[in-house]
């Protein structure tokens, strides 16, 4: 599309109709009559036209004015580097090109922009004047008709922005723009941001109207943004930023190891685990068909289970894609059985260091007896042991094969270490002290404590 067609399509029309009359601005020098011999007409700020001999066949009143009121609308995005000038009569034609000089404000030209000379044509659209030359703070060119003229710059206009892209790694993404305006061909520089658009960095070699990425990956490319700078002599225009969304390859879940049924004592712990292959996996455990709140890991750990925790446990495993669970699979049911405890009847050696105070006096000694005890498991390594046939008990953890205990019964206190020495045997070493006085225990004779 050429510049004339572009601005006609964009409706950049003149607000002042072009006529053959004189005049053209609010700061105009008196017209000068120029005939076939030619001549020079000077306007404000050094604007002028030099008419060579033979350019006109009849005397014509020519004027050069600095124009503002009633001037044509500027092209969208144009940076004007000074005032607009009207060379009249508008629409005049010359048999030989005339030389026009248009002044501008050099200090208003931004860095990187090149001043260009623009004029309105017979259709009322702005176009660039070919062959215009810059000389200090003026531009000079040859034309064959009169119109409005000014010095400025028009960066490219981006009419089609790059679009967001969504794909699955390692596919590539393509972005493109369409730009129109003066001074093609344009230059392009694509840029990328990996911090949500806060900073954009040039992509080496990405200098066309389209850009295609390399192979993508979720870890390095997801949510990156892409834009392009389109430039000409008039400056640069930045496109909107397009976002790239990258999703990992989805591998449906497969349960390779099912959770196993188990039986545990009340108060102990239980763990169910499912081994699963796949990508972007999410888990949800169920007990008897009801989802367990917070149970969203590959393993389900149950602490201090009770008989109410017994039941069938399953896990549903899914792929999580864009916030939705897909490709769900359900494990086999694993049954949890909770027992109320294990009772052991053990035979052991009881070594007692005792101290007694009673009617027979105070004495101490050591006895070694063969005894029987009932041991009840109430949890994982948690046991209740009867320390005396008359009712003293201790409950606590079995560390290795032993634990320390203390207890009491009417008439005495006792503490010691209980050690399991075999599947059905134990040794207990204790310190026994009777409690004298009313209700206190008496001191037994040798062998009586068995």
What is the 3D form?
rod-shaped
Give the amount of beta strand, in percent.
over 45%
Helix/strand structural class: mainly beta
Q: How would you characterize the largest beta sheet?
A: 8 strands, antiparallel
Q: What is the CA-atom radius of gyration, in angstroms? A: 50 Å
Q: How many strand segments?
A: 40
User: What's the N-to-C terminus distance?
Assistant: 115 Å
Mean pLDDT over all positions: 83
**Weakly predicted, low-confidence segments:** 1-26, 445-450
- Helicity level: under 10%
Alpha plus pi helix count: 2
How would you describe the overall organization of this protein?
By secondary structure, the chain is mainly β. The chain is built from 2 helices and 40 strands. The strands form 9 sheets. Strands 1, 2, 5, 6, 7, 9, 10 and 13 form an 8-stranded antiparallel sheet that branches. A hairpin with a 2-residue loop joins strand 21 and strand 22. The longest helix has 7 residues, at 3-9. The protein starts with a helix and ends in a 16-residue tail after the last strand.
Brief sketch in words of this structure:
The chain contains two helices and 40 strands. By secondary structure, it is mainly beta.
Show the helix and strand layout.
Blueprint: H1 3-9, E1 27-28, E2 32-34, E3 39-42, E4 48-51, E5 60-67, E6 79-80, E7 84-88, E8 93-103, E9 116-120, E10 126-128, E11 133-135, E12 138-145, E13 148-153, E14 157-160, E15 165-168, E16 174-176, E17 178-180, E18 187-193, E19 201-202, E20 210-212, H2 218-221, E21 225-232, E22 235-238, E23 242-247, E24 254-257, E25 262-265, E26 270-273, E27 275-277, E28 281-287, E29 290-291, E30 299-302, E31 311-321, E32 324-330, E33 334-339, E34 343-358, E35 361-379, E36 382-386, E37 393-397, E38 402-409, E39 412-422, E40 425-434
Parallel strand pairs: 15-23, 25-33, 34-40
Antiparallel strand pairs: 1-5, 2-5, 3-4, 4-8, 5-7, 6-13, 7-13, 8-12, 9-10, 9-13, 11-12, 14-17, 16-20, 18-19, 18-21, 21-22, 21-23, 24-27, 26-30, 28-29, 28-31, 31-32, 31-33, 34-35, 35-36, 36-37, 38-39, 39-40
């Amino acid at each position: 599309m050429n510049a004339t067609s572009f601005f006609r399509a964009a409706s950049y029309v003149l607000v002042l109709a072009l006529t053959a009359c004189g005049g053209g601005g609010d700061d105009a020098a008196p017209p000068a009559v120029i005939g076939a011999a030619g001549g020079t007409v000077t306007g404000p700020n050094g604007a002028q036209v030099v008419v060579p001999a033979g350019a006109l066949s009849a005397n014509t009143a020519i004027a050069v004015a600095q124009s503002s009121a009633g001037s044509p609308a500027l092209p969208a995005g144009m940076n004007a580097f000074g005032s607009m000038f009207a060379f009249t009569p508008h629409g005049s034609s010359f048999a030989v090109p005339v030389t026009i000089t248009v002044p501008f404000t050099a200090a208003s030209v931004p860095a990187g922009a090149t001043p260009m000379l623009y004029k309105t044509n017979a259709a009322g659209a702005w176009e660039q004047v070919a062959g215009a030359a810059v000389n200090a703070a003026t531009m000079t060119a040859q034309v064959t008709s009169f119109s409005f003229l000014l010095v400025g710059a028009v960066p490219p206009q981006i009419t089609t922005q790059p679009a967001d892209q969504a794909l699955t790694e390692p596919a590539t993404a393509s972005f493109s723009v369409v730009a129109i305006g003066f001074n093609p061909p344009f230059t392009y520089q694509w840029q990328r941001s990996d911090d949500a658009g806060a900073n954009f960095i040039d992509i080496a070699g990405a200098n066309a109207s389209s850009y295609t990425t390399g192979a993508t990956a979720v870890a390095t490319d997801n949510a990156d943004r892409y834009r392009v700078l389109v430039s000409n002599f008039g400056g640069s225009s930045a496109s909107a930023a397009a976002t790239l969304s990258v999703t990992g390859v989805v591998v449906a879940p497969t349960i390779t190891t099912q959770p196993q049924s188990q039986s545990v004592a009340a108060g102990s712990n239980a763990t169910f685990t499912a081994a699963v292959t796949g990508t972007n996996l999410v888990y949800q455990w169920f007990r008897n068909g009801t989802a367990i709140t917070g149970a969203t890991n590959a393993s389900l750990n149950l602490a201090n289970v009770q008989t109410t925790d017994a039941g069938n446990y399953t896990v549903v495993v899914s792929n999580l894609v864009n916030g939705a669970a897909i490709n769900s699979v359900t494990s086999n049911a694993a049954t949890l059985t909770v027992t109320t405890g294990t009772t052991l009847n053990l035979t052991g050696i009881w070594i007692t260091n005792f101290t007694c105070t009673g009617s027979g006096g105070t004495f101490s000694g050591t006895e070694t007896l063969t005894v029987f005890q009932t041991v009840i498991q109430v949890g994982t390594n948690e046991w209740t042991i009867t320390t005396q046939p008359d009712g003293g008990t201790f409950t606590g953890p079995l560390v290795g094969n032993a634990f320390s205990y203390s207890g009491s019964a009417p008439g005495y206190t006792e503490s010691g270490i209980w050690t399991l020495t075999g599947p059905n045997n134990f040794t207990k070493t204790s310190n026994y002290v009777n409690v004298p006085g009313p209700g206190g225990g008496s001191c037994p004779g040798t062998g009586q404590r068995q």
